[in-house]
Here is the input.
Amino acid sequence: MSTIDLRIRNASVVLSDGPRDLDILVDGGKITGVVPRTDPTVATEEIDATGLHVFPGLVDPHVHLGPNITYPQSAEDVARETQSAAAGGITTLIAYLMTPQPYEEVFPIAKAAMEADSAVDFGFHFCVVTRDQLESMPDYVRDLGVSSFKFFMNFRGDEGKYLDLPGNDDGFMFDLLEAAERNGAMLDPHAENIELVWRLRALGRPEGVNDLDAWNLGRPDYVEAEALHRLSFLAKVTGASVYAVHTTSGLSLDVLRQGQQSHPDLFVETCPHYLTLDINAPCGTYGKVNPPLRPRHDLDALWSAVADGLVDTIGSDHVPRHKSFKEKDIMTASAGFPGMQNLLPLLISEGYHKRNLPLERIAYLTSTRPAQLFGLYPKKGVIHVGSDADLTLVDLSGQADITAATQLSGAEYTPWEGWHVEGVVARTIRGGESTFANGAILPSATGKFLHREHSGRAALDAIA
Here is the structure.
């Protein structure tokens, strides 16, 4: 009998129908068996996973990297952020590149920076902000392996000027939707009606509310929901696959649920912060994000949608700007915060332990479904023979406190400061090699680029 590279013994393996007491066999970076513990196969290396649950390695579909979240260009942009991903059990991320420059010029720079210093596998989404970029979509899909594209519905007039992005309109978005449908791609729109925000901005800050509620009231739930309603209708008209990023509110969920009745290729993402933080969170300006944190009833509505299947994925929306950009008043502090390292521990603690969310549902939301929607399945997202040996070992009863000192991100803060979680990542394995174990990043933590030919409905049809 030949010897394989790795055997994970005594694990509770999280499969699609629930956890099973099995061993996992790995050779050549692939899963070669999910077998009974009595199986005689011999391995060069063995990991005793007694007391641990093994999830498919997490796929984070929503990450920002690089200077002012444009695109990664150096080790400083990549190393610490992707190490924070590995520490959180993430083995694959898809990062947004955001610039008016031609992506055929930007892509090689971003890819080289990630290949040099990433601790995880990676792909890219492109934010399409110019007509030239839109017309290049077939080349991006075919030649660069990028099949998902972001559009900022809120960047009209000079609203995107702080990121050097031009204004746009619904006509441009309609053309994007048509192009995505033609090319087997998917559109990932940031949905906010900025004209309603401008109206509220002119009225000034509401009195008698805290900072986070003031930010919420300046970009309320109907601002997001109206944009999603318009988007859902135009997606139906064009037949395009649409991925509603960072959904925040019960009102938006109602719109998306209604939209799916006539256009099923409307997919829903939310984020860990909308499931755990609300307008009364003690983090203050550290919790500023767009769309904003919402009242507690929206948080509860999101958990219900996570449980009942409306929500497809949970992405971190990781933003690594340094804490100095946050230590301002709520109107001038930058939006967004780091989240990759805490995504899974928060879902285990708040979802599994407190709300009885099944472990297989967590695995589906954080690994299987994003891999399916973004053209990575079954290479990623599942513990199957032939899949990449990307695995996340979790101690469900492990205890930890989230603090700035425990975070690997270069942002050097966390909006979850002082949170106590039950459920910790014990080990992360990418391609059969441990990248994180015993609380430390390992030298084997490297990553490779993932060419994605399809996203959305085209990706799902390729699986069938």
